[in-house]
Inverse folding.
């Protein structure tokens, strides 16, 4: 599907009262959240979400193949749900999937951190927490700088043209997270393919096939791979995150096989695809907003603010789900026990009541209270690592960048969960 000129491509996206009135019904607007292809058309997506925020910020969605849910599109309402983590639980439906995929995942017993609630979530999260602490990030800084330089060098060696996504953006964070886990470098390409098949299961180009069975097979392939590594790590522990997970104990007992494999899977996928989407989408935004790129090049001290704006702008995790544990109300709307809610982070990060001029890409934006990493007890475990990777890459690329422009049509992945650009052809000149 063609990527039309929209918020990532132009200076601003103005959604007027007139445009809201001419748009489809609220029911149709809400349905975009269950349509993976809607995320390939950012103009249409953001127009629909703006209509929901204005007219029905908590809207009922009933579409074929999916169980019903409430779409929550306002920043304040999403924070309210995230804060009330005992009232609105992650289990049993943390991600929007078809009913068939929901049932298949439940039958397989998959329980990653995003499936868990406290107190179990807090205990299991603690197993890896030290690996993503500020102290750990500081220790990793030099290595990530080296990797950033390595991948910018590769851009120069490519001769001034490349598909930035496939040649740089997916590989840099992949190398970081797989090295952290302790996966042998020779297996990195296999892990890239598996992670793309899992998070890209709604995209015709990225998925293994249109069959939900094949998506489950991709997950089982990843589990099988890590099952072999687990045996090795338990026999001979090493100083990496994978070994830490393999040998973790809770109340004196090791994690179950399914919980161990699920832990690897969430670290491998969340630690890779989200960051690659942010790096690619961030570079795209800087290409389309040359005045912002020039400002950032002239003042590298703005990189931390620019990193936050890139993460808000791209919002690689599109949504998470929650389930009401009891009857309640949200924004004046009655929510019954057992009802599912979709928290649209994409919408919240463009909420006119939460951000000044939200459709303006502004590397000086401060404060920037985006929810791209979630909020509350489920705040992204690897947020510090993602920020560091983006910042280090910008710090390496910008001083060496003499010119850059698009060299073809950028293309976004179809998704309802995690995604961003899958192709970004560029032409550039590097020192």
């Amino acid at each position: 599907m063609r990527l039309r000129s929209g918020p990532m491509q132009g200076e601003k996206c103005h959604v007027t009262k007139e445009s809201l009135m001419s748009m489809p019904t609220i029911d149709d607007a809400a349905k975009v959240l269950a349509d993976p292809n809607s995320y390939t058309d950012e103009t249409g997506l953001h127009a629909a979400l703006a209509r929901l925020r204005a007219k029905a910020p908590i809207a009922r969605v009933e579409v074929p193949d999916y169980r019903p849910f409430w779409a929550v599109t306002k920043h304040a309402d999403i924070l309210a749900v995230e804060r009330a983590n005992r009232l609105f639980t992650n289990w049993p439906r943390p991600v929007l999937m078809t009913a068939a995929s929901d049932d298949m995942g439940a039958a397989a017993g998959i329980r990653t951190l995003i499936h868990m609630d406290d107190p179990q979530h807090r205990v299991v999260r603690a197993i890896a927490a030290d690996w993503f602490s500020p102290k750990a990030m500081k220790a990793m800084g030099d290595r990530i700088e080296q990797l950033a330089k390595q991948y910018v060098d590769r851009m120069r060696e490519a001769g001034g043209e490349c598909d930035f996504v496939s040649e740089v953006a997916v590989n840099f964070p992949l190398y970081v997270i797989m090295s952290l886990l302790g996966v042998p470098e020779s297996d990195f390409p296999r892990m890239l393919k598996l992670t793309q098949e899992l998070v890209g299961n709604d995209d015709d180009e990225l998925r293994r096939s249109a069959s939900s069975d094949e998506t489950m097979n991709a997950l089982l392939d990843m589990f099988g791979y890590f099952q072999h590594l687990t045996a090795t790590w338990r026999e001979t522990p090493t100083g990496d995150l994978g070994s830490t997970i393999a040998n973790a104990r809770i109340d004196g007992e090791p994690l179950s096989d399914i919980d161990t494999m699920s832990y690897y899977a969430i670290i491998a996928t969340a630690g890779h695809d989200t960051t690659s989407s942010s790096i690619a989408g961030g570079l795209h935004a800087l290409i389309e907003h040359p005045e912002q790129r020039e400002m950032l090049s002239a003042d590298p001290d703005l990189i931390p603010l620019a990193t936050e704006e890139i993460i808000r702008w791209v919002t690689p995790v599109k949504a998470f789900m929650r389930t009401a544990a009891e009857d309640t109300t949200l924004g004046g709307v009655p929510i019954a026990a057992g009802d599912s809610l979709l928290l649209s982070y994409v919408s919240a990060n463009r909420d006119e009541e939460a951000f000044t001029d939200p459709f303006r890409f502004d590397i000086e934006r401060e404060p920037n209270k985006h929810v791209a990493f979630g909020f509350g007890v489920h705040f992204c475990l690897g947020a510090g690592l993602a920020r560091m990777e983006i910042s280090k890459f910008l710090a390496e690329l910008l001083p060496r960048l003499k010119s850059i422009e698009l060299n073809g049509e950028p293309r976004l992945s179809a998704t309802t969960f995690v995604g961003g650009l899958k192709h970004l052809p560029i032409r550039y000149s590097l020192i």
Confidence is low (pLDDT under 50) at residues 1-23. The radius of gyration is 21 Å. Residues 402 and 429 are 5 Å apart (CA to CA).
